[in-house]
Amino acid sequence: MKTLCTLIVGLFSIVLIGCSSNSSMGKIDIGGHGFIRSPQQKIAVLEGGQDGAALGLIKVNQYFHLYVEPGVHKFTGMFNDGHGNGITTSVSLQAGKTYYFQIVQLPAIYTQDILIKPRHVSDATVEMASFTNTTPGQVLAKPGKALVYFYYALTTKEQAAIQTQQEKNKMLEKKLGCTDTQMREGTCQ
Q1: 3-state secondary structure the chain
Q2: Global pTM?
Q3: Taking 60 as the threshold, does the pLDDT of residue 125 lie above it?
């Protein structure tokens, strides 16, 4: 009986560590509607499809801008580790105008989609106001070019799910007497 109890406790510990490792690797459950990646995961913005040229790399609650030639452009977002399914957005850009695009993680069960969606300037500036880099508005237009902003913000639901996951991780760390790093590396004793 004592051996059986020891086996059950050991199995329970392995399951807990495995669950913690899974969340530490960046999959955060969104209330039964699939998962998103953790905010530490960077997203590459590409010109063209999933194999297109990289325009920039972005973290959550940040933005970048660039000048592009007028005309039809296709933008795609991919996790910088190559995972996920980037959905290509095709837009027609005009010289002298400013455009805003939000990068969105769509909750998924398996392969996660990343969407780049056009946003109105009023919505974008409100969403970007608390970002870690400076707020837009200081950049001047260049003649013959379109000014394009890309920004990456989590939804309220995603932020709540991440906070819940972080609280669970802290409780598990305390219960097991391990650090987050030890659990992620599988060295928790």
Answers
A1: CHHHHHHHHHHHHHHHHHHHHHHHCCEEECCCCCEEECCCCCEEEEECCCCCEEEEEECCCEEEEEEECCEEEEEEEEECCCCCEECCEEEEECCCCEEEEEEEEECECCCCEEEEEEECHHHHHHHHCCCCCCCCCCCCCCCCCEEEEEEECCCHHHHHHHHHHHHHHHHHHHHHCCCHHHHHHCCCC
A2: 0.67
A3: yes
